[in-house]
Amino acid sequence: MNTNTNQEILIDVKNCQQSYPKDNNSQLIVLDNVELTIKSGEIVGLLGRSGSGKSTLLRIMAGLLSPTKGEIRWRNKLLQGPAEGIAMVFQSFALFPWLTVQDNVQIGLEAKRVPKKECQRLAEEAIDLIGLGGYEKAYPKELSGGMRQRVGLARALVVHPDLLLMDEPFSALDVLTAENLRTDLIDLWVEKKLPVKSILMVTHSIEEAVLMCDRILIFSSNPGRVVKEIAVPFPRPRNREAPAFRQFVDRVYTLLTQTISNNFEEKNVNTVNNQSPFTALPLISMSLMMGMLEALLAEPYSGKADMPQLAQSLQMELDDLLPIGEALQMLKFAVMAEGDIVLSDLGKQLVNAENEDRKRIFRHSVFKNVPLMRAIRDVLDERPNHKASAERFRDELQDNMSRDYARETLSTIIGWARYAEIFDFDEEADQFFLDKDDKTIHD
Predict the structure, then answer these.
(1) E strand map for 261-416
(2) 346 φ, ψ (degrees, to nearest 5)
(3) How many domains does the chain fold into?
(4) Co-location of 324 and 363 in the same domain
(5) What is the C-alpha radius of gyration for the chain, rounded to an integer number of angstroms?
(6) By CB count within 10 A, which of 99, 300, 391, 412 is most buried?
């Protein structure tokens, strides 16, 4: 942990908002009132779920995207376009396949008109630094995923940036490769061999954030904003098996589940007050929900699980586990609190029931707690032919979310409705319909 209180402010984000126009002349707000400051001498983690706008924020901070509102100040000057001294590492490697490792690394230097010999020298230094010495003449297709990400890292480091932005740099790698690269990066930081002053990294892995960062910023979603800042109190190197480390990971899980619960309760209140069914849902299949319920009821959990331990035992990341917990909480089958997920009596009843009773329990719960399900069924009940176009509901969902999320939300609703026999869906006609097998809600 960095204890220097006189750190230089590198970048300052004030009241940042990002929105995109939609077909109905309204705006989809992705980021709202984002505030954060990055100082020299620290690694900062931006922790939150996929789709919360973290990557968008990084692109704004890199000068690749202009915010709709607010300002970004780099070294106390308004950021307008890509800035000297900021470099970015992408999740997808983003290498030019027709260039060698050496050429990929030095391409940024060439764009800055650095003399050829100096380009070669700096590129070779960066390649050696990240452990790819000897591969200068190789092409990306000849490298493993981990090696390609090292090339991406070398390309960012070769310009000696003051601020390195990393967008989920390990998420596309297998577990062992990611761990190896993560460890090497921390070692270089501790040994002061990285030619950077600060790192801001986007991640959805709590353990990764606690292992690497001096500060963790918890990011909410819909819209994205920083809702909590946590200082990591451990010196490096950090032992992830130490009791204090595990307790700290538990604490971060608790803060995240509290954030999700608060967001869920706020949306629930708004839905009740406004009678609007067109809000975001956790995009979770029936099989995932039932699998999680059965795992929670079985030993060793017996209805209550510590979420970090559960994630570890099921080999699940934050982005996998939290949406399942959110869906179970929304349907009253479980509660997330204090870093735990606890089955409700209704959840236990669902797991212990036979197939037809399971469907009945789920049908009543989803109809009661998911306004969109009720809205679609009400329209089908009212119409003589018991049919309704999906496009109508998709368009209304797009007033509150992106086109892709609206489509995935309807797909999730269809899966739940089919299981519960509330209504069915004709993909070719793109319409919902009732048939003789669809149950009444009060059967």
Answers:
(1) 304-306, 334-337, 340-343, 387-389
(2) -65, -40
(3) 3
(4) no
(5) 25
(6) 412
